[in-house]
Specification:
2 domains; 7-stranded mixed β-sheet; 8 helices; 15% strand; rod-shaped; binds S-adenosylmethionine
């Protein structure tokens, strides 16, 4: 009984899921079957046979329709497969193209990286080479400096803010050759002590200006330790406003220079660049008239743009001031001649 109920249930579900045309075909088939059954039962053999023929014809047509429908399904399936294949192939091509592009880009990047690494290594090697050569030059200069003077106390160190041994050597060579009587230095430190030793030997005096009272005091202590206070003095000259060519600068208090006339050698190594742009440019404006008729002007740090610009402007505007040939150190040397007199070698 329960088996029958479950078969009935499944049948009901199937019947409910039929489409309208399927339901119509089923009704027609049932009607024809009922007609055959009724005609056969009432002895109408001819009608029953006709209805069986109609039923068979219907079944035949149904089979034909079904086979056409399945053929259509098969073709649609084939077309869908073809489309899918095309889509998959396109996707494969795109993926392969993207991977290839990335591979090429990675190759390019690799080449670029290799090139810049090689360049960096070469530059680094070149830099190390230059550094080694510069160091050797400084060591050689140091030997020559100490060969010429025997300091009476430990010398303050050179380099960094102070002049390098190469520059000190060239500066002292100028002192030995040109024998300046009055040397003025802007920016005191190690160079003050070396200059004082050179002037003690050649005969002359040094006035050094420092904007910073602490550094001025340190240099004074150094001069005292080396017994050079009779040759050199350090003046504290705080920075104050100075107008040059209509522009305001922070420069040494010019009052501290008021008594200085006939400067034979001027060393410009201050104020430090950190005190303002073109920090050293006012030097010639303030001191050109205080130079001796034949004098030498040395500007340190002439490898920097501000200082290069100052040398160009001074030699263009100060009559009688000309740049001497380039030296080994980073300083520029200029000769000054007010009367057009020849500058000593
Ligand atoms: C270029 S330094 C002068 C150096 C000096 N002509 C020499 O060769 O030793 C200019 C000024 O910088 C200041 N100064 C010196 N050494 C310094 C340092 N280590 N740090 C900061 N400022 C310094 C001092 O006031 C000095 O007058």
């Amino acid at each position: 009984m329960s088996g029958l109920t479950s078969v009935g249930g499944r049948l009901a579900v199937r019947l409910r899921s039929l489409t309208r045309p399927q339901a119509v075909v089923l009704m027609v088939v049932l009607a024809v079957v009922a007609g055959i059954w009724a005609a056969a039962g009432t002895g109408h053999q001819g009608l029953a046979t006709s209805l069986v023929a109609v039923l068979l014809l219907g079944v035949l047509l149904g089979i034909l329709h079904l086979s056409r429908w399945m053929g259509g399904l098969y073709r649609a399936n084939q077309a869908a497969n073809r489309d899918l294949r095309v889509v998959v192939e396109q996707m494969q091509r795109r993926v392969v193209g993207a991977v290839e592009k990335e591979r090429l880009a990675a190759g390019d990047r690799h080449q670029e990286l290799t090139r810049s690494l090689t360049r960096g290594l070469r530059q680094n090697g070149h830099g190390t080479d230059l550094l080694l050569r510069a160091q050797s030059r400084e060591i050689e200069a140091m030997f020559q400096l100490f060969g010429e003077f025997t300091p009476r106390a430990p010398m303050p160190s050179s380099g960094d803010f102070a002049l390098n041994p190469t520059e000190l050597l060239e500066l002292l060579h100028i002192v030995r050759l040109r024998r300046p009587q009055l040397v003025v230095e802007l920016g005191s430190g190690t160079s003050t002590v070396w200059l004082a030793y050179a002037l003690e030997k050649s005969g002359g005096r040094l006035v050094s200006l420092d904007h910073d009272a602490e550094y001025a005091a340190r240099t004074r202590d150094q001069l005292a330790a080396h017994g050079l206070t009779g040759v050199a003095e350090v003046r504290t000259a705080p920075l104050s406003d100075l107008v040059v060519d209509g522009k305001n600068y922070r420069w040494y208090d010019v009052e501290k220079l008021a008594d200085l006339r006939g400067i034979d050698l001027l060393l410009i190594d201050g104020p430090p660049a950190a005190t303002g742009p073109d920090a050293r440019y006012p030097a010639m404006h303030a001191l050109a008239s205080r130079l001796a008729s034949v004098a030498t002007v040395v500007l340190d740090d002439a490898n920097r743009p501000d200082e290069q610009d100052a040398v160009r402007r001074w030699t263009e505007t100060v009559t009688g001031l000309t740049a001497e040939p380039q030296r080994l150190g980073r300083h520029a040397v200029m000769s000054y001649s007010r009367s057009g007199a020849a500058v000593p070698a």
